[in-house]
Specification:
The chain has 160 residues and is mainly alpha-helical. The chain contains five helices and no strands.
């Protein structure tokens, strides 16, 4: 098993993430029985597979790029602004949002996918990204400000 995250996650956070995942995956599974085509893949499934593929690869590749950078002792205390992170400061969150939305789209339920996309985007833009920005501003100072100026997009390249 590959481990990218090298920080501990608290038990309450594990429980929160687990419950959220159980609910969203259960809704997607239930809606696939209700809305999914019975005679093969439809347009929503192909769009969902595309979103899932682009999203999961974006999240995985960006995290691996950052991990490789952080593992080099020469880069200790430096902001990683290369690879996919040169396109959006929190591109890993954007990738996560896309693959989770794509997963639900494969169920054939566009309204649930739109709801989940909105929920993730809202959570990242109102909670996670401001929290991470505050943390990084304190940790990296002027280097973080330069990164913000150099990379104007927050979540999705050329969009937001």
């Amino acid at each position: 098993m590959t481990c990218i995250l090298e920080e501990q996650i608290s038990y309450p956070m594990i429980l929160t993430i687990g419950i959220f995942d159980i609910i969203t995956h259960s809704l997607a599974t239930l809606s696939s029985f209700i809305y999914g085509p019975s005679n093969g893949l439809g347009t929503l499934q192909y769009v969902g597979i595309s979103f899932f593929t682009v999203g999961i690869l974006t999240e995985l590749i960006s995290e691996l790029q950052r991990k490789r950078f952080k593992n080099n002792p020469v880069n200790k205390g430096k902001v990683y602004s290369g690879g996919l992170f040169s396109l959006a400061r929190h591109i890993n969150y954007g990738g996560f949002t896309l693959w989770r939305t794509g997963l639900v789209l494969t169920s054939g339920n566009y309204w649930l996918a739109a709801l989940l996309f909105s929920l993730h985007t809202w959570d990242f833009t109102t909670r996670a990204i401001p929290c991470m920005t505050d943390y990084c501003s304190k940790k990296y100072g002027e280097d973080w400000k330069k990164f913000e100026n150099d990379v104007p997009y927050t979540l999705f390249p050329y969009i937001y």
